[in-house]
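Summary: Need help interpreting a holo structure output

Steps to reproduce:
1. Submit the protein chain below together with the SMILES for manganese (II) ion.
2. Request a joint structure prediction with the ligand placed.
3. Inspect the structure token block that comes back.

Expected: a single structure record containing both the chain and the bound molecule.
Actual: see attached output.

Input attached:
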Amino acid sequence: MRIEKNWIDFHNEKRLKAHQRKMEFLSSEMEGLDSILGKLVNFQVAIPSWALGTGGTRFGRFGIGGEPRSLEEKIEDVGILHALNKSSGSVSLHIPWDIPSDPANVLQLASSLGLRFDAMNSNTFQDQPDQKLSYKFGSMQHRDKSVRRQAIVHNLEVIQYGIALGSKALTVWLSDGSSYPGQLNFRKAFQLVKESLQEVYAGLPPDWKLFIEYKAFEPNFYSTTVGDWGQSYMLSSKLGKQAFTLVDLGHHLPNANIEQIVALLLMEGKLGGFHFNDSKYGDDDLTVGSIKPYQLFLIFNELVEGMDDRGMDHAADLAWMIDASHNVKDPLEDLLESVEAIMIGYAQALLVDRIRLTNAQENNDVVMAQEVLQQAYRSDVRPIVAEARLRGGAALDPIALYRERKIRDNLINSRGTKSIATGL
Ligand SMILES: [Mn+2]
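--- attached output ---
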């Protein structure tokens, strides 16, 4: 199903007066709003193809009904999100969960919904039913050369699928590691991963990027071979200028200072992209901004400062993607909430008075430095984010419109109550 333009117009009309009152107040209070709004309109967050169904835990999974049954239906769901917020203009595919069997048709469907294809994701952390060799003891770190070869060939295939769809990047996340002390020679495992990645890197088209995602633990619980940003940075530095580190917010040890990590990676020109989610205990994959919105703001604060320092385009020069799971929420509503939280964090970071902050830092004025940050963070920027949506032709209140039009009921009517999307 598709969101009709007149639904959006009707929805916005009812809310326009109240919205305009808030904007009039904010315009009188804030300088440079037009430039901020322009940046918000341009900013797009990719939706991963595996996030459109209900997520599960290892204890169970509770379906919501109307879940997409094919790649085409997943793309249609992202089309619904993008029509509602005009900030979800790309899809990130996972192979082999979402192999495009008819790329021309998939490409045509996506572009009819205003979508493009962001980074491709490979999978050597699971065994597929038709797979010859097992990844039980790792993929690119495996002692058996033929297992490593199988993992390399898979990644090269994923690049080919991506080329057919106009993607420009490959994200590699490896679960390689060990669950018990003594199981692995750390140094040899790292070397083998590096050599395997070098072969994948050699298969990249010249205008592609390779993102190396790290994760501290899980599914292995003693060591992960690409376990932190230092290990990813070592690999991306050794591979070459098309290789970058990818930061997933949930992939750190508790209380890691992620804003400092992104600041330094940006400084070195090695930050490639982001996977957004939120967490309280581990890699919980909760809705973005639901647990630690201040951390999200502080990360965006470093991103904006660092990107501006390097003259980078906020919307195009890093890959932005949501990587969350939805155990108890409607996945589409959850994704709308996540995108909203990202836009809020970004808008607040754009509001930071850089000159006053730099002055406070130069003069060791700790109080004023904090005041500058708090001034931006405590501002209610939701009307600004809504105004950006309005200017882009989207809904002032996407979740309200989603409910008014009973989108989930419609999806259940057409797809059934038992449909299950592929993915984790
Ligand atoms: Mn991730």
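--- end attachment ---

Reviewer comment: The chain has a mean pLDDT of 97. The pocket of manganese (II) ion is lined by residues 213, 248, 275, 323 (CB under 6 Å).
Status: needs-info
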